[in-house]
Amino acid sequence: MAPMLHPMVKSADIPMGPSEFVEKIPLERYVAPEKPSLIGLTRAQLADALGSFGVPQEQIKMRVQQLWHWIYFRGVTSLDEMSSVSKDLRAALAERYTLARPEIVAEQVSVDGTRKWLLRLPGEVQGERPHEVECVYIPDTERGTLCVSSQVGCTLTCTFCHTGTQRLVRNLTAGEIVGQVMAARDRMGDWPGGTRPADGVVPNGERCITNIVMMGMGEPLYNFEAVRDALLIVADGEGIAISKRRITLSTSGVLPNIERTGAEIGCMLAVSLHAVRDELRNELVPLNRKYPIADLLEACRNYPGVSNAKRITFEYVMLKDVNDSIEDAKALVRLLKGIPAKINLIPFNPWPGTRYECSDWEQIEKFSQVVFDAGYASPVRTPRGRDILAACGQLKSTTEKLSARERMALRAMAMVE
Length: 417
Ligand code: SAH
Ligand code: SF4
Description:
The structure is a single chain. A hairpin with a 5-residue loop joins β1 and β2. The strands form 2 sheets. Strands 1-2-3-4-7-8-9-10-11 form a 9-stranded mixed β-sheet, with helices on one face. Strands 5-6 form a two-stranded antiparallel ribbon. It is built from 11 helices and 11 strands. α1 crosses α2. Bound molecules: S-adenosyl-L-homocysteine and iron/sulfur cluster. Iron/sulfur cluster binds next to loops.
């Protein structure tokens, strides 16, 4: 069947007035593959799925338990491997579902062992050009952190962020978010009995992926439900079982969903602050025009579960001669007084065409000394994977390279075929 055309959305090159806050319009939409993947269904959704094709009610709980174990504990990639599930049920599932995760189409390994994967996802037209997101694995001696994306591109336009320049935007599904973790565990041999890659760096210890940060492409709190469902699956103790204390969600400050993040997900929160004055933050993080600093900090004070043992991380990108003065540092510690906080100074990671520069190292040291003297430990984040454009804010898949004309031509072709 020919796919439906949707009304053309005009170019995302929306002029931004100096005081006006405009989000980019999502350009492309997701078309579900012919058979959906079971990955990303919550336990309740799995139960509904089983019920919908006649699994007796009294068996459903046990079947969900079995499937959960095979999918999220063992990490099987084929329904045939589920040996404790009856053949009939496997066949019924195979008719309707797959266990597909996003496909890794390219891998780059940095000199420091960081890996960046380009993942392929369904696009707007079935069988035509797919969408892409990036996912980054950062190994350390004792831990391995996976940096996961929540959207293809981002509707926000923070001026120092490469992802913000990408025009193509769509939300990822819960399955595509959990799928990044699954694909990474497949590649790193992180399921029971798996084999580690021969190259790169892996941490000591049983697990390769011990921590998750929602700091890849996209604004996770603009895709709240999918991110919530995905993170609850990742944290589930009978599956992947990464504790909520090891999962950090970073937001540019989508106020209405901050409280929900604490209440409904319960993970660690990081807030991209980057400036101590509204005037400057309006420029760096345009969402500040909607949710200014004072309101944002108020939401942080009230973040469910916040305490000295569960602090909020405030991220602050170090931009030369923009936000890196000693006065800024002093204002920063004054501003955060009374909030259980960690401060994370991020040296700016440059990308092709940016107008910003990273602060000089001496300036970062002076700035961090002020922060350190105020009682915040080890505040500077070491940049990782810069040589492969894998560091914070450098992610940008090339999906957008398709021009509007090319997209129209592809759609037209798909209609004819
Ligand atoms: N959209 C979310 C999460 C993704 S970005 C957010 O903005 O919080 C993760 C972190 O990298 C954010 O703090 C973001 O502001 C920061 N960042 C973006 N571009 C950067 C760059 N070029 N150099 C350093 N940090 C950057
Ligand atoms: Fe989007 Fe975060 Fe980049 Fe801002 S910093 S454009 S919110 S991904």
